[in-house]
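Dear colleagues,

As part of the handover before I leave the project, I'm documenting each prediction I ran so the next person doesn't have to rerun anything. This entry is a single chain, and its sequence is reproduced below.
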Amino acid sequence: MLRFLIKRLLLTIPTFVALMFVTFIMLRLVPGDPIEVRRGERGIDPARLEQLRHEMGLDQPVWKQFLDYASGILHGDFGTSIVSKTPITHEFLTLFPATLELSLCAGLLAILLGVPAGAFAAVNRGKFFDQTLMATALTGYSMPIFWWGLVLILFFSNTLHLTPVSGRVDLVKFYYPQHTGLLLIDSLIWGPKGAFLDVVRHLILPTIVLATLPLAVVARMTRSSMLEVLEEDYVRTAKAKGLSPFRIIGLHALRNAFIPVITAIALQIGSLLAGAVQTETIFSWPGVGHWLISSISRRDYPALQGGIMLIAIVVISVNLLLELTLGIINPRLRHDQ
């Protein structure tokens, strides 16, 4: 197991370095200069501009800027925001609970609906539910997040007035201490009466929008994996012994079909965080995604670079944890690699 862990850790290093290099280069290709953005309409003295460019290291060669940037990350320094003058790590940790809460709710919704739907579709292969589910999954997989979010806002918020349009909670009506940053927990424990329900109402639409893509993937993967398992000899033997369908499907088939599904869920973590950028922008959700989009318009290079790398650390860490979990569940994965 230790050898498997070390090998996986070593494989993450080139991924991290490649992402760091690509992020640095791509940001330099974006039109605009962070110094010129700060200059504004009133303008700044040219000497002051040169001083600011020197302070930010933008007057150095690109290769020198990259080495300084990489050296800072290796020492745990992800930079300081040009706009807020706040360390990137502090800003990220302040905003990440909002993104984490939204991603967890979306991921949980995708699993709770996708796994049973995919299993039921496999059991009823070729029937009406199976065909309907596959068509719905294909539609959900192909649907742009920004379009889907606007449709839900127009229908549920503007027309039916059932859900809020933006934000995480109505701060005018409900104000309470935020100890964990996860408003579902904070509102339930420390919030006034009605705060928890208000947080849930704000979460409904963003969760549905963000869960659409992973829900489609999990449902399709569960169906595909279940179809393979249902053709195995031990399933046919269980049927011949007269075991109940619930026991055959629930205890034998679904448990063995769940390993590829866990892999699919792990691969959707990156999709959740990438989709959170668009979702948070649509619903003005005060999380990391909304912060990164704002940093793009302000040409805040340190915030963009540091934020992307911190998200990468989260995604790589969670994927590594899930791979270790799969290695524990299925020892053959450890010995085959």
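The chain has a mean pLDDT of 81. Residues 151 and 231 are 41 Å apart (CA to CA).

All the best with the project,
I.
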